Amino acid sequence: MMMTRGEKVIAFIEAFCVIPEGHDVGKPIQLAPFQKKFITDIYDNKHGTRRAIMTIARKNGKSALIAALLLCHICGTEAKKNTQIVSGAMSRDQAALVFNLAAKMINLSPELNKVTRIIPSQKKIVGLAMNVEYRALAADSTTAHGLSPVLAIMDEVGQVQGASSPFIDAILTSQGAYQDALQIFISTQAPSDADFLSIMVDDAIRSGDKKTVCHVYEAQPDCELLDKKQWKKANPGLGLFRSETDLAEQLKQASRLPSMEASARNLLLNQRVALESLWLAPSAWKACSAKPDMEVFKKYPVSIGLDLSARQDLTAAVIAAMDDDEVVHLLPFVFTPLANIEERSTKDRAPYAQWARDDLMIGVPGNSVDYEWVAAYLRDAFDEMGIQIDTLSYDRWRIELFQKACNEVAAFQGVRWEAVGQGFKDFSPRLESFQAKLLDGKIRHGAHPLLNMAASNAIAVTDPAGSRKIDKSKSTQRIDPLVAAVMALHSVTEGAQESLPEDLSFLIA
Fold first, then answer.
1. Nearest C-alpha neighbor of 318 from the set 329, 331, 299
2. What is the spatial distance between Cα 316 and Cα 111, in angstroms, rounded to a whole number?
3. Cβ atoms within 10 A of the Cβ of 120, count?
4. Nearest alpha-carbon partner for 187 in 218, 156, 233
5. CB count, 10 Å around CB of 202?
6. pLDDT, mean of each 10-residue run, the chain (509 residues)
7. Rounded to an integer, what is the distance from CA 241 to the centroid of its chain?
8. What's residue 276's pLDDT?
9. Which residues lie closer than 8 Å to 319 by C-beta, 6 or more apart?
10. DSSP string covering 449-491, please?
């Protein structure tokens, strides 16, 4: 019976490619079922495959599979006369890894050694029978220009930040000379929805393009780190060439150390989670999702954190109160202009319009946030709920305008105002207070979607002295509600440290 094109690729790899390093070095490669499925879906696609994507957790044989596929195109069943093929990686080290694995496979195989020539200085391999030239390229070099590859295999493109990169563009646009050019991407997930790999995966799933093959191996977003059923979803090579013992040890450690959780979820469970710079561990945040007790705001001192916005962005006010068990209850009030809310929803990749319809976000009439309208709204809301504000913690930016608005509508009279600098010195102790409460399970935020959005995107940066602050410029979505919550929580747990006089009229020009 005649073999299909995909079956021929599999047969070539298992007949001539050997394990290049490790305990079983020199033994024939035995492809795992998920690898065979990926190969047959690519090469036996009746519509013809233009792009193939596999996203999978680390240590599941990605680089070795890339090397084997390259060899099939260099000197195997997919070799085409006088063509160029390339592999691309975001660093020289990663590019060299793929080249070295392919070279080792050749050196360990007498059959492949006879039909290829390795040029280490150029990271180049030539298939002698069909004159196929392969080169390993890196993003930090200039060698991507001037090529015309029929095949481009990209390794770890999850590291590409943003929608694209000049390196990626140079390789993909260089394939225009071929009608049957093929692009293969094999990588762990990118941290953000806005990154190149995520955009490609989402487009493939959404569009249903028949010329695109997309295999995504990932654990469920809300899974527990130690759920073994989820391990297999992201690690289909588990027990074959992915050590279950090693994976278990790493995930157990991450479950004990919140600072490691985000990295473990991204690299080991292949979830879209920002790496080491993500401030809050998702599981710790989720564990504090109980609804706030509204009676606590009536019985105990209440602080409000205020993060003012530019007129067309989000203005966030979050109230906090601590009960007798030292649990801090949080309730956000987030304001945004109603005009052009759909456009801003698209820009910020957040459903502002729906949240406004569901009364989870407060729509301010007009094109901008009117501070008098906000101050009056908060005054009336707190009066109706029977809540007395004791302290208002604020970022100094535009505060004089808000204070003037409060004077106009008689809001927050008799309240202690606390200025909070947003730099390392003032914000670091507030981050520590918030994180300590979170890890102790002493916060009730009610899983409010605006707080959830902010918590899942907050990026903390550290100065040489070890102090931390939240960096808004590094976050992919709005984090204003969380900044306000951090300020409010510190006021009710530690007390106002930098109180200002109740009368701030001297700030008004």
1. 331
2. 67
3. 11
4. 156
5. 12
6. 94 96 91 98 97 96 95 97 94 91 96 97 96 92 73 92 81 86 95 83 93 97 91 95 93 83 90 69 85 95 89 86 96 93 78 90 90 94 94 89 91 91 87 91 94 83 78 71 94 62 38
7. 26
8. 45
9. 297, 302, 303, 304, 305, 330, 331, 333, 387, 389, 488
10. HHHHHHHTT-BEEE-TTS-EEE-GGG-SS--HHHHHHHHHHHH
Rounded Cα gap, residues 398 and 61, in angstroms: 53
pLDDT at 509: 32
Rounded to 5°, the CA angle 61-93-194 comes to 75
| Paired sense of beta strands 460-462 and 468-470, if any | antiparallel
Q: Around Cβ 429, how many Cβ atoms within 10 Å?
A: 14
The phi, psi pair for 213, rounded to 5°, reads -105, 125
Q: What is the C-alpha separation between 247 and 154, in angstroms, rounded? A: 25
Q: What share of the chain is helix, strand, coil (3-state, %, to 5)?
A: 40, 20, 40
Residue 146 tokens, joined: 């001037």
The angle that helices 5-16 and 33-43 make with each other, rounded to 10 degrees, is 140
10 Å Cβ neighbour count for 468?
19
Nearest to 282 by CA among 293, 292, 291, 274: 274
Length of the chain (residues)? 509
pLDDT attached to residue 499: 41
φ, ψ of residue 415 in degrees (nearest 5): -95, 140
DSSP label of 28: B
Partners of 419 in beta bridges: 394
Burial class (CB in 10 A: 0-12, 13-18, 19+), 407: middle
**Bridge partners of 443?**
328
Cβ–Cβ < 8 Å for 137, 87: yes
Q: Report the interhelical angle of 62-75 vs 5-16 (nearest 10°).
A: 110
The stretches of 287-351 forming alpha helices (DSSP H) are: 294-299, 341-348
Q: What pTM was estimated for this model as a whole?
A: 0.60
CB proximity list for 352: less than 8 A, separation 6 or greater: 336, 341, 344, 345, 361
Pairing relationship of beta strands 315-322 and 328-337 according to DSSP bridges = antiparallel
Distance CA 415, CA 391 (A): 6
What is the helix (H) or strand (E) element at residue 171, kind and residue range?
helix 166-172
Q: Report DSSP letters for 101-116, one per residue.
A: HHHHHHHT-HHHHHTE
Query: Which pair of tokens denotes residue 473?
Result: 């410029």
**CA atoms of 132 and 402, how far apart (whole Å):** 68
> For position 505, what pLDDT does the model report?
38
